[in-house]
Amino acid sequence: MDVDGFSQVRPGSFHRWHPRGPADAGRRAAKTERRGIMNSRRGLYVTLFGLFLASGFCGLLYQVVWLRLAFAAFGVITPVLSIVLSVFMLGLSLGSWAGGRWIDALTLRRWRSR
């Protein structure tokens, strides 16, 4: 017997009173599984990030081209800049709205199939 009433514990063995004992084993296994899933999806996340980055770059490039063409046709005036920026922001908002509806429909269909 030890001073506090518990028997000596071998290194590496867990008992029910130990914070990382058998009761914690399920949580550790789930955490390890989540890490494995995240590591397997890392390539997907990097690819999606790259696609979003390229898409944003192309959108800004189009905005600059449209702005230069409008300035060449109408001159450098404030209403031209306002219209080009407004149409660009309208396109962003419509794309976000459509993407949100699409992803909602996709996730609802996925959850119903389970």
Radius of gyration: 29 Å
Cα distance spanning the termini? 53 Å
Structural class based on helices, strands and sheet pairing = mainly alpha
- Total helices: the number is 2
Overall, the morphology is: elongated
Helix amount: over 70%
What is the chain-wise order of helices and strands? HH
- Strands, total number: 0
The average pLDDT is 78
What percent strand? under 5%
Can you walk through the features of this model?
This protein has helices at residues 22-74, 78-112. The chain has 114 residues and is an all-alpha fold. The chain is elongated.
Short description:
The protein is mostly helical and 114 residues long. Helix content is 77%, strand content 0%. The protein is built from two helices and no strands.
List strands and helices in order, with pairings.
Blueprint: H1 22-74, H2 78-112
Helix pairs in contact: 1-2
List keywords for this structure.
single chain, 114 residues, mainly alpha, elongated
